[in-house]
Design goal:
248 residues, four-stranded antiparallel sheet, globular, binds adenosine-5'-triphosphate, binds magnesium ion
């Protein structure tokens, strides 16, 4: 495995859409995420890959300010508020969490509405609503259904739909394919690819690395709380080899 795969910092965008500067996180005294520098350019999709316990979810949680953190996160060069996830989301940094985080007893429509609870502009609400239902026609057929009674794939579509209702400028997704059948996974990742092609900046944490690498402009490999490599997916021939090299 050649370390020549690593992308030089100069090849990354000058003013990132979102950038972490020495961002780390602690649970109690344990530093689960060591200082981390990651960049997502405007309209880029970056994949964050790594084994269980590597710190992938912690990284996303630190960006949102959901966990005790140090260092900083910048959106178009401006620092994001610290430890204030509501304020961070209001700036357009929106997380689709591990496990989806939808409200099971509420209807699909109510879950979607919650994504846009801050929005007062009815026209913009309608625009986002129609867009989400166009991206996920299966949600349209189930608007009045109790969310918790839907299949895992439909619930993941709802979680992404709800995040889109918030009008993200950067969308963070934590293992959207978890527990889903291959066909549903492909459908969901294709939709993410479509959103990205339309200009949405995305950070995608995925265990299904080969699928994520097909979409990504850049991949960060995380191991034991550190970024151990930054790679250009076009130059990766075998993810298994990479995993062996970096994760064992
Ligand atoms: N709430 C918590 N309290 C204490 N330690 C935690 C907490 N959440 C995570 N950790 C620890 O932090 C480390 C990173 O966990 P994290 O959940 O970020 O990993 P991950 O890469 O998302 O793993 P997975 O692929 O299993 O989702 C692990 O050692 C984990 O045990
Ligand atoms: Mg995780």
């Amino acid at each position: 495995m050649s370390t020549a795969l690593a992308t030089p910092a100069s090849a990354q965008s000058a003013l990132a859409m979102l950038e972490t500067r020495g961002l780390g996180a602690r649970y109690g005294h344990v530093e689960a995420l060591h200082p981390t520098d990651l960049q997502v350019g405007e309209g880029e999709l970056v994949a964050v890959l790594g084994p269980n316990g590597a710190g992938k979810s912690t990284l996303l949680r630190a960006i949102l300010g959901l966990v005790t953190n140090f260092g900083s996160v910048h959106l178009r060069g401006q620092p994001l508020p610290r430890l204030d996830p509501v304020a961070v989301a209001a700036r357009g940094v929106v997380l689709v969490p591990e496990g989806r985080g939808i409200f099971g007893p509420m209807s699909v429509a109510e879950n979607l509405e919650l994504g846009a609870y801050r929005l007062r502009d009815r026209l913009e609400f309608q625009r986002r609503w129609e867009r989400v239902l166009e991206l996920f026609p299966r949600l349209k057929e189930r608007l009045s259904q109790v969310a918790g009674s839907m299949s895992g794939g439909e619930q993941q579509m709802l979680a992404i739909g709800r995040a889109l209702m918030a009008g993200p400028t950067v969308l963070l997704l934590d293992e959207p394919s978890l527990g889903l059948a291959p066909r549903v996974t492909e459908e969901i990742l294709a939709t993410l690819g479509r959103l990205n092609a339309e200009g949405l900046s995305i950070i995608l944490v995925e265990q299904k690395a080969p699928l994520a690498l097909e979409l990504a402009n850049r991949a960060y490999l995380l191991s034991v709380g550190r970024i151990v490599a930054t790679l250009d997916p076009r130059e990766i021939t075998s993810y298994d080899e990479l995993a062996q090299h970096y994760f064992t």
